[in-house]
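Researcher: Let's try something more involved. This one mixes different molecule types, so please make sure each is placed in the same coordinate frame as the others.
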Amino acid sequence: MLRKPRSRTPRSDKLFAAASRILPGGVDSPVRAFKSVGATPVFIVRGRGARIEDEDGHTYIDYVMSWGPLIHGHAPRGLLKTLAATAAKGTSFGAPTELETRLAQRVATLMPSMERVRFVSSGTEAAMSAARVARAATKRDKIVKFEGCYHGHADPFLVQAGSGAMTLGVPTSPGVAAAAARDTLLARYNDLDSVERVFARHRGQIAAIFVEPIAGNMGLVPPGDGFLPGLRAVCDREGALLVFDEVISGFRAAAGGAQQIFRIRPDLTCLGKIIGGGLPVGAYGGRADLMGLVAPAGPVYQAGTLSGNPLAMAAGLWSLEELSPGLYTHLAQLGARLAAGLADAARQRGVPLQVNAFGSLLTPFFTDQPVRDYQSALAADTGAYAAFFRGMLARGVYPPPSQFEAWFISGAHTSRDIDKTIAAAREAMRNVEGRK
Ligand SMILES: *Cc1c(COP(=O)(O)O)cnc(C)c1O
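Model: All components are placed in one shared frame. Result:
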C-alpha cells in the first residue's frame, strides 16, 4: 500500500483547494497554477528583498519577482513610504495629476524614442493599443509577430503559425475570432529570411512588426547579430512601423532598455512591469506624429478609468529614479555568476543544459542544442525542468514554474543568494539525473 506523502505545504494545499472552487484553475493568471511542473502552487504571505514567505512558513529566494516588475526587490522601504504618502492624498481621481507628466518625462529621458507617452494599466493594453495606432497610421491591417514572442492576451496576438509552410495566423485560443488571427502573420525569431518571405507575400499590407527585442516569453532568447537592425531596415524599406515590446527588457536590460543597448530607434515602444514598480501599469509611446493620432489629440480611440493612477505613477517614478549604473553592474555580475553556476551544476551530473542569459535575465533550457528561436526552445525537456523545479522549491528556491519563462534577478539579490541557489541546483540536478 502506498501512503500519500505528507504535504510540506498543508496550508497552501488547502487554500488552493478553496481557490479552485471559485477561481478558474485556482489562480488569476495561468502560469501561477504550477501545472507544467506537476505541482500545486504555494500561497505567498509576504516578500522582503529577494525573499518570499509562504503560508506554511517556508522562505524562498525568489527568481520570479512578480514576473519582472520588482527590479529593486520586494517591498523596498522607499517605495512603501512613497506609496503611503501618495495614498494618504487619495487613490484615484479620474482627472490629471502632475505624477503622470513626471513619469512620462522620466521615461522620455531614459528612452529618447518615446517622444510621447500614454499610460495604461497593463502590458496587454499597451500592445493592443500600439497595434491600433500602427494600423491607423499606415492604413494597413496586417501585423507581423514572431513565434514564441508574447505581447499580452489581446486577440490579434493569440496566434500561432498555421499548418501551411508559413505565416498565416490561426488562433491559439478558442474564442479568438479567425478574422482577428488572419491579419497576424508569423515569422521566426532571429530569422530575417522568414521576415522577408512574409513581406514578399503581403507587400503593402503590413502595418508593423512587433518584436520583443530580447525575447523573454519562450524562455530567454537574446537577438542574434544583425537581427534587430535587419528588422529596422525591412520596416524602413516597406513603410511598416517597428514596434519594440520592451515590457520585460525596458529598464531591465539597461535603463534605456534593449533599444539603448542595440542602438535601434523603434517607431513605437510598449512598456510594462518595471514601469509600475509592482503596481498595475503599462505604457505605449514613440514618435510624436504617431502618438498625435491618439485621442483626444487625434482620432484613434483609447481610454482607461484607472490609467495614470496616482499610486501606480508614484511607484513607477520611485522605481525609475532608483535605477543607477551600479545597479546594472550588480545585476550583470549576479546573472553571470548564476548562469555559470547552473551550467556547472548540470555538467557535474551529466545533465544536458543550455543557459541563455542577458544581464539579470536567464533561462536554463534542458537540451544539448542552442536555443535561438521557438522551435529550438521547444526541444527542451520539460519533464527535466519540472523535476529540477520541484527540487529547487524543496530547497528554498523559487524559480519560474515553467521551462519557457525567464528568471528575474533583482538588486536585492546578493552573491550569497546566488551561491545558495547554485548549491541547491547541484542537489536538484540529482532529481533530473535520477529520471533517466
Ligand atoms: C508580460 C508581458 C506582456 C503583457 O503584460 P501584462 O501586464 O501581463 O498584460 C506583454 N509583452 C511582454 C513582452 C511581456 O513580457
